[in-house]
Structure formats: C-alpha cells, structure tokens
UniProtKB/TrEMBL annotation, chains A, B:
Source species, domain of life: Bacteria
Pfam families: Pyridox_ox_2
PANTHER family the UniProt entry points to: 5-NITROIMIDAZOLE ANTIBIOTICS RESISTANCE PROTEIN, NIMA-FAMILY-RELATED PROTEIN-RELATED, FLAVIN-NUCLEOTIDE-BINDING PROTEIN
InterPro entries membership: Pyridox_Oxase-rel, Split_barrel_FMN-bd
Annotated protein name in UniProt: Nitroimidazol reductase NimA-like FMN-containing flavoprotein (Pyridoxamine 5'-phosphate oxidase superfamily)
Organism of derivation: Actinomadura coerulea
Length: 215, 215
C-alpha cells in the first residue's frame, strides 16, 4: 500500500503532528463515514454540499444528483471531498486549550463520470457504504432509473488525513486549578428502525438492519 | 424575523420542495450542530475544512485557527459554511428511492475578522455552542492566548436550508414487493465523560457536562 505523498494542497500548515501518511488510516476514516462534504467552485464562489459516497479500493464514488447540475454543467473541474468524524469534546482547564477529538480525510482531484458498468458499481458501493447488505435485498435500478442518476468517480491519489485523539493538554500552571478536565465522547448511534407506514404486514426487519441498532 | 431571500447561489435547483425560507429553521439547524464544514478557494482549488463555530443572532462565528492561514493570507474572500445533520437512513423497496433524512444549512458570504471585544464574544459563542456552561468554569484566555487565535464573523444574510424527513416514497408497483422499507434513525450521542488522567483527585464532573450524557 503506497503512502500518502504530500502535495502543496495536502501538506498541513498547522499542527502537522496530527497528520498521517498511512493510507490505511485514510481508508478507515472514509469507510467509517456515511456522508461527505463536497466542495466545488460555482460561478467563482466556493460551495459545500453534503452528499452520499462510497469507497472501492482507491476510488471514491460520489452520488452526483445533489449538486450535480453544477458539476455536469461545466467542464471537468477540481473538487474537494471531506469526511469528518467528531469523536469527542476536549475540555481543558483553560479555554485556550479546549479542542475536539476528530478524524478527518480531505481528498482533492478532478472527478470523472462513472458510466456503464461502473455506474452500477458506484451505486452499489455507495449503497453498501450507507447500509451494508442493502444492495442484495432492494429492487435494482432499471434502465430509466439508471439514466436519472449520476455517479462521479474520484481517485484517492491526492489526500490527507488529520487525527486528534486523547485528553487535553494544559499549561503547566493550570493543572493546579479546581477545574474538571477530560473528554466527553461523541458517537453516532442507530435508533430503533421505523417501518414505513405503508409497509405490507408480515415483512420482518432484515438482520442486516437490526444488527446495526445500538443496544 | 425576516425570511431567507433566495439569491442566485441559494436558490435550489433540485428538489426545491425540500427548501425552507423560514429563518427559524436556519437557526435550529445551526444551533443543533457542533462542527461546520468551511469551504474556501485556495490557489484556485476548492478546499473544505471542518471547524468549530457558534451563532449569535444573525452572525456566525468561526474558529479561525484551522485553515485560517489561507484566510488570513489573502484579501477578504468569499466562503461557504455548511452544517449538516444526518438524521436517518431511508430504506426504500427500490434502490433508486433510497435516501437520507437530513437537515442542512448553507451560508455564503465574506467573513470579517472579529477583533477586540468581539473576538472574546466570538470565542464565548463558539465555546458555548460546543459545551454550554463551559465558558463560566474554565480559565479565560489571557492577552497572549487571545492574540494566538483568530475568530471570523460571517453574517447570515445569504443562506439556504434543506430538510428531508419521513418515510421512503416508492414507485406504485413496488409496494407489492416483499422488501422491508422504513427509516433507520441516526443520532449523535454523548458517552460517559473520560477524566483527564492528570486530573487532581476530588474534582467532580460538573453538572453541565453530566446532564448531556445519553442515558
């Protein structure tokens, strides 16, 4: 697995000790997420749109319907895709040292449309990223539906990751203060599945969904 | 409270029925979040950075240290700030109608640096957005610490919100399929606070933190 090579865009200016060039860390951060924030330039202004994505090897597939008009309209253009996990609030003795425990990945590049067989692959990868097991149970898209969605493929050639974990670090003299310090963990959890009011009776919740529910 | 007026940037192309011009919806979405995704243009490329923020009336304060080098370096420039809540995975009978329940706010504008008293106000607002009650217990920044952070102020003049909630909508003929359909709710929850290993004995976890823990 080749390491992440810093480019002018991915080299970290601030707190470089929080970066990693380990490609497996990039994979973990991307695989753990459900939505990304897609950045692009529209009429000279930056725009940031939340959208669904999935990873297959060194390709990121993006669901292109949301905001795709902007991407389809112009020629191929640079985008930035960011996936962030908020893992905890870091509460220090001084406000200055308050922080956030997080893992984030930033990917730069020019996406290409995924067409033909690759479009179906991309949709499968995006579906399975959000709900593993779902591709095998729901009805697959027909020709007309396939034509109605767009999928973008972005290579993971240019990416950076940044991770902050652990307790706060305070100024030496502040450890004597009578202030509680530590981390308040933040997690994304799944609640009880809510059946569609129009669900036909007798259809049980499938195992790949019930097993995700946080007990 | 004046409504959100559509501009060329905030007018929604796709699924306009998911938009709202109700400013109170914008406030709710912003007030519910802990991090935003800040989009800016650096050397001609879009860049999306997660960062902390807070809202006071019609001003968004952004913690400017992360990525601030890019913002400080150039002249004042357009940015885009997006806050997204992932509320649920919408599982339909057909893959085409799979969706995500979410609430998102997108704010456009040119931020100005918050200086002097307003810098302190901005830091308070950002701190209280992440951990309400924390400003009153931790040591406040001294002059040197204040100089070491930057705070940006962005007006909520140009913003849009988009919300999707509720069950899936399937094609008429698919309701007969033997496929479970519904929503898997997603929530952000707080775990048990982890005290700093260097915490002096006898300092209890304050009530404003324990009360946030999901029971």
């Amino acid at each position: 697995m080749n390491p992440l090579s810093p480019t002018a865009r991915t080299r970290l200016g601030r707190l470089p000790e929080r970066s990693s060039t380990d490609r497996s860390v990039l994979y973990e951060i991307l695989d753990d997420g459900m939505i990304c924030h897609l950045g692009l330039i529209v009429d000279g202004s930056p725009r940031v749109i939340p959208t669904a994505y999935g990873r297959l090897d060194d390709t990121l597939y993006l669901h292109g319907s949301t905001g795709a008009s902007s991407l389809r309209a112009g020629p191929s253009q640079d985008i930035c895709v960011t996936v962030t996990h908020l893992d905890g609030l870091v509460l220090a003795r001084s406000l200055f040292h308050h922080s956030i425990n997080y893992r984030s990945a930033i990917v730069y590049g020019t996406p290409r449309p995924a067409d033909g067989d690759e479009k179906l692959t991309g949709l499968r990868v995006i579906t399975e990223q959000l709900t593993p097991g779902q591709w095998d149970v729901a009805r697959h898209p027909d020709r007309k539906e396939l034509a109605g969605v767009s999928v973008l493929a972005l290579s993971l050639d240019e990416a950076s990751v940044k991770v902050r974990q652990g307790p706060p670090g305070d100024e030496e003299e502040d450890y004597a203060l009578d202030v509680w310090a530590g981390v308040l963990p933040v997690t994304q959890t799944f609640g009880a599945p809510a059946p569609d009011p129009l669900l036909r009776p007798g259809i049980p919740i499938p195992g790949h969904i019930t097993q995700r529910v946080t007990s």
